Amino acid sequence: MLPTSSSSSSSSSSSKQILFISTLIILWYSSNIGVLLLNKFLLSNYGFKYPIFLTMCHMSASAILSYISIVFLKVVPFQKIKSRSQFLRIATLSVVFCGSVVGGNISLRYLPVSFNQAVGATTPFFTALFAYLMTFKREAWITYGALVPVVAGVVIASGGEPSFHLYGFIMCISATAARAFKSVLQGVLLSSEGEKLNSMNLLLYMSPMAVVVLLPAALVMEPDVLDATLSLGSKHRFMWLLLFVNSTMAYSANLTNFLVTKNTSIAGYSVTVMGVVAYGEAKRRYK
Fold this sequence. Notes:
Elements: H1 2-45, H2 51-72, H3 84-107, H4 113-120, H5 123-135, H6 141-160, H7 166-191, H8 199-221, H9 225-235, H10 239-263, H11 266-285
Helix pairs in contact: 1-10, 1-11, 2-8, 2-10, 3-7, 3-8, 4-11, 5-7, 5-11
């Protein structure tokens, strides 16, 4: 009787875990889709062509909402940074994230969106590579084998892309590698026994650091952003509401991204990333 009861309990626990992870992935998909559609709406309807500043708004919302959730709503306990090395790793995570945004932004000046998304599909390859280099974690050979067609496809697409630009391609690959490095680094920060941070606390610390990096980048690369934003806001009364909703949804996307990374393997994360990329490509082709 006892083995049967134990087996039943284990099966129930496994089912709950699968349901939890499935819910996380659905929420991450939904948040990313929402951010994608709202970004597109802002860019096409209002001419709000300032992706670095927009990302800064997203990270500002993430910082504020994380603070409210932890300090006032007490959703999770507040965790202090325990060491200088932990602070440096969080700062590195923020800088890498900002670098991926800026690199992707620069690449879009030289490459079409479709090719940019095709290169972005190699994220799982870089994720598996960095996971091995940083944690010596090996995946099953079938996982690596599944990544070969993705990389081969990008190589073939590069040779056949009529508007291929070497500098744009380098920036796009760099941005993709930075996103993969971020996912592995945040996985380490979320799982290290000595200096473990829960997802919300990690976002609380990472977001303000990202804002500090993104603000000067926006002022340098998008010098007219403040005047243009105020001007657009006075002309279109719903722009501020859309910007607020967009930033709030970006907080959800960032938080669920951390949770997915914490609760799935590299393989599971890779499948999820490829799904998001595939959705973006489908939206582009059939819009």
